Amino acid sequence: MSGANPDTMRITLKVWRQKDTDAAGSFKTYYLHDVSPDMSFLEMLDVLNDRLIQTGDEPVAFDHDCREGICGMCSLVINGQAHGGDAGTTVCQLHMRRFADGQTIHVEPWRANAFPVVRDLVVDRSAFDRIMAAGGFISVHTGSAPDANAIPIPQETAEQAMDAAACIGCGACVAACPNSAAMLFVSAKVSHLGRLPQGKAEKDRRVVAMVQAMDAEGFGNCTNHFECEAACPKEISVENIATMNREFLVASFRSRDLG
Amino acid sequence: MVTAASPRLESKSPTGPIADRWDKHRFELKLVNPANKRRFHVVVVGTGLAGASAAASLAELGYDVTSLCIQDSPRRAHSIAAQGGINAAKNYPNDGDSIYRLFYDTVKGGDFRARESNVYRLAQISNNIIDQCAAQGVPFAREYGGVLANRSFGGAQVSRTFYARGQTGQQLLLGAYSALMRQVGAGKVKMYPRREMLDLVVIDGVARGIVARNLVTGAYERYAGDAVVLCTGGYSNVFFLSTNAKSCNVTAGWRCTKRGAFFANPCFTQIHPTCIPVSGEYQAKLTLMSESLRNDGRVWVPRSAGDKRPAIDVPEGERDYYLERRYPSFGNLVPRDVASRAAKERCDAGFGVGRTGQAVFLDFRDAIARDGEDVIRKKYGNLFQMYEKITDENPYRQPMRIYPAPHYTMGGVWVDYNLESTVPGLFVLGEANFSDHGANRLGASALMQGLADGYFVIPYTIGGHLAGRKLEPVDTGHPAFGDVETEVRERTDRLLAVDGRRTAENLHRELGRIMWDYCGMGRNADGLRGAVEKIRALRAEFWENVRIPGGTNEFNQTLEYAGRVADFMEFAELMVEDALAREESCGGHFREEHQTEEGEARRNDEEFTHAAAWEFQGLDEKATIHLEPLDFEHVKLTQRSYK
Amino acid sequence: MLRWLGNALSSSIGKKILMALTGLFLVVFLAEHILGNLTLYKDADGTAFNDYKHTLESFGPLLKVAEIGLFAVFAAHIVLALKLALENREARKQKYAVRAHRGKATAASLSMLITGSLVLVYLFKHVVIDFRFNSAYHEAPAATVKETLSKPSNATFYVLAMAILGLHLAHGFRSAFQSIGASHPKLDPLLEIAGTAVAVLFAVGFATFPIYFLFFWTGGAS
């Protein structure tokens, strides 16, 4: 994508505009002539919006917050790639120097039935919260915890749990999946908590409840394309999905009161 | 001005031996009968560390909890961006730490402007927090043997910081979020995302609910309760450019101030020394890099002003490692306020580097030569990568350029020992209150305070309010809700009706520049007085010339944002007033008139050993100052010295 | 009583596990099939192959049970595939205008439904027209095989079909292990290699028969 960086770049944007969830959407074309290669993609959209407001048009709605790649709010599909195609990078950390002068850029929202469009590029990801409410936790009341060093955890286990826990819940895995499956998101949490000794007590209950909640939201099924892993800004491994499959299978047979 | 206690500020701080105060206080607080808890309704605003932990813990106790957040999910609150770690007095490394030492360091680090009782409680609770978070599955770093790892952070002389790679805030927040979602799943918490609190409803002098806007539909919604818990974070975005998330704002706290809560020490803002410098006019926010970088990086500028050679071409003898020069004992690890001011001093004197001259070098050359690139990569790889993504420069080959940026606000809504504001029933937790960090916050202490407030303070102290006061049943049909909603609606309609020519962002940038120039790292009376006039003029300009497309009954991000900017325009004035009134330099507040011959901050303990809590009197009226004197029985007032 | 099993198997993960297990079963069948076919190379007159066929038939009703079982597994694999494909289509009603993959999804993984359908078309010809339901085959098994495969049109068709089967296996084999939860940094590279090996082995292995009979078989006695 990257070419020689001029001082400013010309960019043609084709942006998905949609008034609300029920409205039909379409692409609108915008031309920007003075994009600095040092701008982040979102700053470029800020500049576009500033201009749209000045000229009396409605600015493009898009989700963003921390702008340092950790809150998981930003969620754009750029030229067909969730978060724009740089490995391990959220859109807010993607810079315009990664594009070529004169390039045409398509910007779309996450597309999945389970993530309805709220407006323009903003989608509703509350399905993820409902999955978490179903079982994405360790049941420990405030105040009832033993001393933190009472349960030693091998460093390798802690590191693996951390790898999975790094998920920012942005939904890029769903957006990138040819089937709109949410397996990487759900498995990251199942695997993070299931690996730790503290999380083992309710391991069976957790995986079954979370998978049931996931299925109820209308996500697709995993067919092991591994596009999710490639799109994940935190580079979470699909090994977690295998772990979840295994845990689900075991839990379904072992547990006496589930299913 | 002599510090005389205001009768309106009753700190309720317990007396007696400091180690027993919290126990004693908890015993004296009234308890709510377990069977009655479900009849009490608590509204918690915000889902950061403080909000999520409070909502979860209160629901676990049996209270009926409503939780609101401004983002699309409670998991996204800005606590998530904290990198470095969380302090606790566990003394696992056996290096001499103790609750008393953590207490001592925090009071001293806060430059003696915090309440001793609160800070001691914070240090006591710090250990429970680590236990709680580990039990929730927070994947803290571990030693090979499986016990928790610690590191030294932010210049502390002991290793008391627990961490989860460079994402400690994220992991702690996700822990609190999971506890919250567990209660949502159990039906004990009703969760409302994409809601923005726009006002507080006070009935018979007690906070009984809020009015919020549904950011998706634009509808105004009323939430009634027996207590309101504000966990809405800090106001660094008053500077426009800060390390805060874009949605961080002062609206909730400010609107409560307009309803009678006092706002304390608004001028105490922290400027973080290790941020990536501004690169252009379009810049929307600044990115912080963990100050753990200063453990191995050396800060320098060229010895001669205006030297624009690339860093690697500047020979050793022509480099000025100014922190090591000025502070031989702490060197590059001096506290944040000191490091930030020293960088500004060099840049103002013309020694700054980079295109803008508003940056200093943070150099890893020597650390790489000493430990090897692999070791450095292992410690800081993610930070180096982030730096490279943003600047397109390779920090393994050339030094980073850094500059201070607004980061955290120690000031906030005034609260007593129970974390209750001057409006009964309104509790304020985490960064939104003013309580524990005084004039400067130490690294790895924000996470500690947010979680202490939410997990281990509010669950007890709210009982005192609920059991101790006669609370008539109130629902959202009460006329007070209607009145507040009408006011909020009119304000929004007025915003839309302006239909001027400037964007809210453009006006916000201008406000940010005023605040940065006159109420930033260095402040003086003339500048501050001028700033008041400038802010007033800009506020007038805002209300005459802001342009907000779209309407109110829809998802309208420009409208949301303009409302927040409007509040910043009002709040900024209070910040400047406070900075003007505090005729001393302490912590993050540096008044250029009050410095030693060596350019260090000079406190005025005679007159300013107090918290200044401001009572709003109307927009064009001067706010009334109330003073809470601070007693230092345990940590003797000394001049901070890092030489 | 078995509601738990129904629930487990009808979940998204359950369906995938069934896909994997039926698929792996079919791979085992392929292995048996190719071993049987090798008897064609044993002698020129086809006696070995004919004997092999007779041995199978000597199992009598057991063979019927095995055939029905095999059919059931095929049917389950196909029905589940269609169900998954439909659900997956349904999960994204509004498609992307521009779509770019990051190179993790492969031609094989993206075309499973197509390659699977083509294999089904092939099976129709292979089973219904050419052999299993062709009376000529039962009269002179080896000869019919050789006659059929030596025709250029058939040989081409069979070779192409085997290439498609190989493509199907190239994703399917590796994917099945992921679906049943067999993944580990030490195992995964081996599975990658095994997946490719299985695909190549079966595709090339089966394709040798039409190629042999087209180019190298001199016809005549059987």
Tell me about this structure.
The complex is a heterotrimer of chains A (259), B (643) and C (222). With 259 residues, chain A is an alpha+beta fold. Helices cover 34% and strands 14% of the residues of chain A. Residues 1-5 of chain A have low confidence and may be disordered. Chain B contains 17 helices and 19 strands. In chain B, the strands form five sheets. Chain B has a five-stranded parallel sheet. Chain C has a single domain (15-89, 108-216), classed as 3 helical TM bundles of succinate and fumarate reductases, CATH 1.20.1300. Chain C has ten helices and no strands. Chain C has helices at residues 3-10, 12-37, 47-58, 61-90, 107-110, 112-130, 135-139, 141-150, 152-179, 188-216. In chain C, helix 2 (12-37) crosses helix 4 and helix 2 runs parallel beside helix 10 (188-216). Chain C starts with a helix and ends in a 6-residue tail after the last helix. The mean pLDDT of chain C is 94. At the A-C interface, helix 6, helix 7 and helix 8 of A face helix 1, helix 2, helix 4 and helix 9 of C.
Concise structural overview:
The complex is a heterotrimer of chains A (259), B (643) and C (222). Helix content of chain A is 34%, strand content 14%.
Element order of chain A: H for helix, E for strand? EEHEEEEEHHHHHHH
Second rung of CATH, namely the architecture of the largest domain in chain A: Orthogonal Bundle
> What is the number of E strands of chain B?
19
Helical segment tally of chain A?
A: 8
Q: Largest interface, per-chain counts? A: A-B, 82 and 83 residues
Spell out the CATH superfamily of one domain in chain B: Succinate dehydrogenase/fumarate reductase flavoprotein, catalytic domain
